[in-house]
Amino acid sequence: ALVPPLATVGITWHLGFSEESRNALLLYGTNLAAIIFTVSLMLIFVGFKPGVSARKALSRRLFVTVGAVIAVALPLSAHTRDSLDDARLRRAVVDAVKEWDQQARIVEMDAEADGGAADVDVLLGGPNPAPPAWRLAEGIQERFEGPVDLRLLYERDEVYEVSVR
User: Fold this and answer.
1) 118 phi and psi, to 5 degrees?
2) What are the tens digits of pLDDT across the range 119-141?
3) What are the strands of the beta sheet with 117-126, ordered from one edge?
4) Virtual CA dihedral for 26, 28, 33, 39, nearest 10 degrees?
5) HEC secondary structure over 110-131
6) Residue 124 in contact with residue 153, Cβ under 8 Å?
7) pTM of the predicted model, to two decimals?
8) Phi, psi of 71 (to 5 degrees)
């Protein structure tokens, strides 16, 4: 539970993937805090009674452990909220594309929600001429319920059937 995230921190940092490195470090911190907190609770529940001199030190350590859990919970909550917003935005893009042109397909999409605003880069392909892009942006905005910056590249499928005899 501790070694893989820590190894991932080193590898991703070395490769220059700073966001992935931070996420792996957050996972490492979450696992470490959870393990220490759970072990502390288990010791209390099974009736571990330290000596009088160790009680004060144990209570301080438990306080530090609870602080570590809280310290990890804050960025973890923010990361979870951001992930849910990104997933909601991607779903809004998929649904808006279906309404915009039922025969269009998403070839590539990069969609990020930041502070209630959406930033969408999408590559679409389809057999029909592209409808106006502003309609797609409005469809995304309506579903996402926030401002949208859309960059759209539409590649029209062209099929040529040739027979030479």
Assistant:
1) -115, 140
2) 999 999 999 899 999 999 999 99
3) 105-114, 117-126, 148-156
4) 160
5) EEEEECCEEEEEEEEEECCCCC
6) yes
7) 0.70
8) -60, -35
